[in-house]
Amino acid sequence: MIGNAEQDAFIRSMKWCTVTTLRQDGSPSTSVLFFGLDGDELLLSTTKDRLKAKTLQRDPRIAVTVLDEGAPYRYVSIEGTARIDEEDIVPGHVVVNRAMRGVPDWTPPAGYEETLKSQGRVLIRVTPKRVSGVVRRG
């Protein structure tokens, strides 16, 4: 479980989030990503040369805000730690793609693992430490 039952239900119904990591000088860097869930972890896909991957290698602290795409603007914020996973990344990318596409039985095309490797893809696995937000509005 990421948060409480109500927060988890909200998270499972969404697909967009903002991700904030810390630059070397301590200033925040935020980007928007699709996400997936694997048990008690959030999964994010990026490439190892992107800033978020580089900052997390140095400092694993991360803040993720799962956003409602419309009114009444519900959200759940997750603060925690992240680890970069470069091995056996196909299952996690399948989870992210299924959530992103809204297709629970999506299967990767032939050569998917090679495509991920050629793009330099990695998974960011977020372990929650603190969860807050507003999921009842309107």
Key terms for this structure?
138 residues, Pnp Oxidase, Chain A, seven-stranded antiparallel β-sheet
Question: Could you explain how this protein is built, in words?
Answer:
By secondary structure, the protein is an alpha+beta fold. It has one domain: Pnp Oxidase, Chain A, CATH 2.30.110.10. The protein is built from 4 helices and 7 strands; from the N terminus they run H-E-E-E-E-H-E-E-H-H-E. The chain has helices spanning 5-13, 51-58, 90-101, 112-119; strands at residues 16-22, 28-34, 36-38, 41-47, 61-67, 75-85, 121-134. The chain has a 7-stranded antiparallel beta sheet with strand order 2-1-5-6-7-4-3, with helices on both faces. A hairpin with a 2-residue loop joins strand 3 and strand 4 (41-47). It starts with a helix and ends with a strand.
Approximate shape: globular
Number of individual domains: 1
In helices, the fraction of residues equals 25-40%
Runs in which pLDDT lies below 50 for 5 or more consecutive residues are: none
Main-sheet strand order equals 2-1-5-6-7-4-3
First-last Cα distance: 25 Å
Indicate the CATH topology: Pnp Oxidase, Chain A
Q: How many runs of DSSP E, i.e. beta strands?
A: 7
Instruction: Give the biggest beta sheet.
Output: 7 strands, antiparallel
**What's the alpha carbon Rg, rounded to whole Å?**
15 Å
Order of helices and strands: HEEEEHEEHHE
CATH architecture: Roll
CATH class: Mainly Beta
Average per-residue pLDDT, rounded, comes to 94
Strand content: 35-45%
What's the name of the CATH homologous superfamily?
Answer: Electron Transport, Fmn-binding Protein, Chain A
Counting DSSP H or I runs of 4 or more residues, the number of helices is: 4
Structural class: alpha+beta
Oligomer state of the chains in this structure = single chain
